[in-house]
Amino acid sequence: MMQSIEVKDILKPRCSTIEEQISYNREERDLWNSKVRSLLDERNELNRQVKELITEVQNQKALRDDENQNVRELKEMRAEYSDSLKIIRTEFRERIALQEEESKNEKVIRTRSPKQIIAERDKFERLYEQGRFLGKKEKEYLSKMKKLSAELKTAKENNKGDEIRDLKSKLRDAEKKQESAHKNVKKAVEKAQESHDLMAELSDEVERLRDKANAAQGGVTRAKREADSLHSRYIVALRCIHSMQDLLKILDARDAGRSVDEEQVEVTDLMTRLMSGDTLSTDEIMALQRN
Fold first, then answer.
1. What class has domain 4-113+159-290?
2. For the chain, N or C: smaller number of CB within 10 Å?
3. Is 268 exposed, middle or buried (0-12, 13-18, 19+ CB in 10 A)?
4. Three-state secondary-structure class, residue 1
5. Is-above-0.70 flag for pTM?
């Protein structure tokens, strides 16, 4: 059996070594716990950003859906304007074709405008009322009025340019409306696409941040495992040094001639075995911890 001095020589250096281990384990444990807190903060911040981005994705989806509905309505309006334009354009072309055909088949008599003829007719009627065509001149008046009436009829028949001008004006108006409707559709489509693209970008960012949050959570798990392991080693080392110090006290008491009870002797034997590298049972380890 080892002498007291031999046990002390073994325990005292070991106490210094274990104290260093205790200090190291405590510092490393605190460092890993700090990493755990830092990673938790990072994970929580990332999850907060993910939550905000998901809300924004939903907002952009709502905007996109609204714009798509607007596109559908504007397309319906554009279709109506396009149909109206086709009708007016067809009528205009038919009218032009008819005029060209008439020009080929008959000689068009160039006359004064209906407005000019009516003005002259009114003039002669006023002169007649003033008595300027009495007697033989009345026959002259009637002949003139007959000619003006015939000329007016011809002028009205040949004055189809006004109808074409009206159709041309309607055509231009219909083209403007159709073009405006087309531009509105294009703008609405662009807005819907912008919202869709932004929604896609935000969704990609959500996935990226989620991956980072998951990585941070993985780091939390690993750091916590390391911190727990160091804490366990710290506790074991702490218990060991307490037991070793208690054993040294017992040895000092024995060397000084003071009494040592049976329990202290048992602890001494257990620590001697432990320091010799023997494996202790659970009950034996608990006995060391109690003392």
1. mainly alpha
2. N
3. buried
4. coil
5. no
